[in-house]
Structure prediction request, 456 residues.
Amino acid sequence: MGRKIRKILIANRGEIACRIIWTCKEMGIKTVAVHSEADKDALHVRFADEAVCIGPAPSAQSYLNIPAIISAAEITNVDAIHPGYGFLAESEVFAKVCEDCNIKFIGPRPEVIKIMGDKVEARNTMKSAGVPILPGSSDPVKSIEEATEIARKIGFPIIIKAAAGGGGRGMRIVRKEEELKSSLELAQSEARAAFKNDAVYIEKYIERPRHIEIQVLADEHGNVVHLGERECSIQRRHQKLLEEAPSPVVTPELREEMGRVAVKACKEIGYSSAGTFEFLLDEDGSFYFMEMNTRIQVEHPVTEMVTLIDIVRNQINIAEGEKLAFEQKDIQLFGHSIECRINAEDPENFTPSPGKITGLNIPGGPGVRVDTAIYSGYVVPPYYDSMIAKLIVHARSRELAIARMRRALEAMVVEGIKTTIPLHLKIMNDERFQSGNFSTKFMEEFSNNKVAGKSF
Ligand code: MV4
Prediction:
């Protein structure tokens, strides 16, 4: 069938590059790190068997530099490339170039990446596959007349989204018909500026949704399983702050239904590798497709903790052409897991706080996992994402997981730079968070309730 992978190039940096190397080591697979000039002292470079410098600090010249990465792959004679998340992970072009160079891209086929990258096409594809979608447009909206017709049909409020968007960029909520024209024009020009593509579409707007996503694994033989959901509602400006599995509001029946829909859709589109279906969950328990992510995600560890399944190992086995080693009935959820994203940021205003880590304590003990690439003396560079660590806990219940996270956060010390650790401690101590009764509006309401608007 496929061929055994003996050596993998990791086209990424930071904690996810280290995370992928950990599993490769466990599988007896050799690893090649690539790095920018700014990352010569990075941990992923030291952990890998080989390392290749692929360009200057700015990602456009290094981690996004396809010719440099392919050259590194050719020189080191790797069988496969793992793209991690971000950078080239959802580049249809990169996946195709890998394929053309006879290097296995660890992810789905380029055609599938392309479909999911166009949010209008993704919506239509999912609708055909029987996935519930919100009422809205099935083509990009070209004129105010067209927009008015759709908006009247579905009723206000509506939301205008960029077809090339995702992650919340270039969205506009419209509550009244009078605002439709200006909002449409603004959304189109924002989309053009951000994505060089002004195509936008319309959906019915849900006021207080939860963001619930379903993790899937699909092999190249049509076998598909889901690994349950992740609760991702706690975010600020479309950046997730913490995630948990399972969601405190998803019942076994709802999980089975969301999972069934996701598995069916994967089979219909011929999906392979790990993937994630993002859903909006309404207060009445209805769920609607939002986007599909065709990569390993930042928050994958909470799913790994509650299923005891190594998602990266499965991505590699799938890329080798192997069949999934388990069926849906073999997958069980154990206990509860929470992940806090620790960012090098001032928690008062979320501005980046790069610099030298002068002192460090990484927490441990029962049920604690830390995915990170920092060390004492490491200098956090200003060029990349500000996430420096993921603190993940696992316990028998949500209540115990919160208690465990609190003590792990208290034990985690990162000196020399500012981090979001104090913010996470405040969230753990928040009654609303503890109750599990929250929506994507949690952070806005959380900040508003603090004296002077920002006591964290
Ligand atoms: C929505 C929505 C309400 N109704 N779509 C934000 C990110 C992008 N993927 C889509 N997003 C939303 N789409 C409809 N029809 C609310 C959001 C949204 C949101 C979604 C998930 C997590 C956090 C969010 C924060 C604000 C808005």
Q: What stands out?
A: The domain at 135-204 is CATH 3.30.1490.20 (Dna Ligase; domain 1).
